[in-house]
Write a structure and sequence with these properties.
Layout (H helix, E strand, L loop, with lengths): L21 E2 L4 E2 L26 E3 L7 E3 L3 H7 L37 H14 L8 E2 L8 H4 L6 H19 L7 E6 L5 H10 L5 E7 L16 E7 L11 H6 L3 E9 L1 H21 L4 H8 L2 H10 L12 E9 L12 H6 L4 H10 L52 H25 L2 E7 L10 E7 L4 H5 L1
Parallel strand pairs: 5-11, 6-7, 6-9, 7-8, 9-10
Antiparallel strand pairs: 1-2, 3-4, 10-12, 11-12
Length: about 475
């Protein structure tokens, strides 16, 4: 004979000091602590006989919790979801870019809804605009001794090893550009757990007066910020969207006037454009307007030629650029071009010069996902019927931003059924064109930018690194 279902216990049999509300769905009592002299917790107080006269309502700031209606005004002053006072370095949309909303295209149809002729015209425009661009970037896959032990740790899984290889190569490229050195501030955009800054700090060893500013717009768990023990390095984490970040309002930068090195690992989509504008226009331009020099430049200018020659011979001058500027350099691993935004994009002038606009940019940034979405080629059986489909596979980079967003579907949903290899080539062309716009923007702002592969595609399909150094004067200019 089958056993009957257990009968719910009586309301009075809850644990002592716990809420007396019976949760029928969970077939148990609520386990929240009830206030002294109360039978129910705050959430279930409306069911208590003694509280019937008081009504609980949803909090207008966060409907995930409730509050007594007669205590709403008091609650709003202390609710954790209330809007916090904005810091001095928050300036609304300072790095946003486009101000004219009329340039932003209205809702456009997805690529799968385009006619075959429309898609062909887009691809022709893409190839015409990409003529003359070098689609084969230089490989600069590097490493750094600071990560030697971590890379050879047998406890590492595949994912950890891939991230370490990328961090080691980024760090190696930072060192090759002579950006590792004392008396500077590293700003890591899209910092996440802050591991890239962590390895930079380890690589700097005994360098003095080094500051790290970690910028991340969301709360992050398992941060490594608290693991740094060096006395000469200072870490500061800012929870803010890059779109609203004004670097020269940050106390350490406004006080010390340190040259900044902008770094980032997989800075997703539009965040790269926001970071570039934050560094070049917001921070760099502020020194030009005030005609101020960073402290490191003042230090160098105060040294005699003999002292500088001695520093160079000892090796301490290897990481001091000849010409100091507010932004000493930029090293950013690019990612997720399909999440770019015309409003924030820094290469709009580059696109316009090639007869392209917001509509073409929208489709190019969507098509860029074809390069990394892990599609499989379709096989054909003896009857001529395709037996496979393009697949949104797990091969996409599991990056710090949570992986790639949704892409524009399978090849068989596109007009003309483009072959997989052709789609990948088009996707790479789209990424290259978008990145070239960033390169031209930096060049126009007085930098020497470059694109290179910094890791193997087997480690990450998002394997392009954007670097930039301030343009150095020629020897003729220096002696003029």
């Amino acid at each position: 004979m089958a056993a009957s279902a257990p009968t719910p216990p009586a309301p009075g049999s809850s644990a002592e000091g716990r809420c007396g509300y019976y949760v029928a769905k969970k077939r148990r009592f609520c386990r929240m602590v009830a206030a002294a002299g109360k039978r129910f917790c705050g959430e279930h107080a409306g069911g208590a006989e003694e509280e019937n006269a008081r009504k609980r309502i949803l909090c207008p700031l966060d409907p995930k919790h409730t509050v007594y209606e007669d205590q709403l005004a008091k609650h709003l002053k202390k609710c954790n979801s209330r809007e916090k006072p904005k810091p001095d370095f928050f300036i609304q949309d300072i790095n946003a870019g486009l101000k004219d909303e009329t340039e932003i295209p209205e809702q456009l149809v997805p690529i799968s809804s385009l006619t075959e002729e429309q898609l062909e015209n887009l691809i022709k425009k893409l190839k015409r605009a990409s003529e003359g661009l070098n689609s084969t970037l230089k490989g600069r896959i590097m490493s750094h001794p600071a990560l030697h032990d971590a890379l050879n740790d047998p406890k590492n899984g595949d994912s950890a090893t891939k991230h370490l290889k990328q961090q080691a190569s980024i760090l190696g490229n930072i060192e090759k550009l002579k950006l590792l050195g004392p008396r500077r501030c590293f700003v890591e955009f899209g910092a996440g757990k802050g591991k890239l800054s962590h390895w930079v700090d380890i690589a700097l060893k005994d360098a003095e007066k080094v500051h790290f500013i970690l910028v991340e717009k969301v709360t992050t768990r398992f941060k490594v910020d608290g693991k740094h023990k060096r006395k000469d390095s200072v870490f500061e984490r800012l929870q803010i969207d890059i779109q609203h970040l004004c670097l020269n309002k940050i106390p350490v930068l406004s006080r010390e006037k340190l040259p900044v090195v902008g770094i980032g690992k997989h800075l997703c989509g539009a965040a790269t454009d926001l970071a570039l504008r934050c560094l070049v226009e917001t921070y760099g331009a502020s020194f030009e307007e005030r005609n101020e020099e960073p402290s490191a430049k003042r230090m160098k200018n105060n040294k005699t030629d003999e002292e500088m020659n001695t520093m160079a011979q000892e090796g301490s001058g290897n990481n001091i650029p000849e010409k100091w500027t507010p932004v000493a350099g930029i090293v950013i691993a690019l990612c997720c071009h399909h999440r770019c935004d015309w409003r924030h994009y820094v290469g709009r002038d580059y696109f316009r010069a090639r007869g392209l606009g917001a509509v073409e940019f929208h489709y190019f940034q969507r098509m860029s996902s074809w390069a990394t979405c892990g599609m499989r080629d379709t096989s054909v059986d003896a009857s001529g019927v395709p037996t496979g489909q393009d697949d949104q596979s797990d091969n996409s980079e599991d990056n710090d931003d949570g992986g790639h967003g949704a892409t524009d579907g399978h090849a068989d949903s596109l007009p003309g059924c483009l072959p997989v290899e052709e789609k990948k080539k088009i996707g790479h062309l789209c990424k290259l064109l978008i990145d070239q716009g960033r390169v031209e923007y930096l060049r126009g702002q007085g930098f020497r930018p470059a694109l290179q592969y910094y890791t193997d595609p087997a480690v990450s399909l998002e394997n392009v690194l954007l670097t930039a150094l301030p343009s150095q004067p020629s020897s003729a200019e220096a002696t003029a």
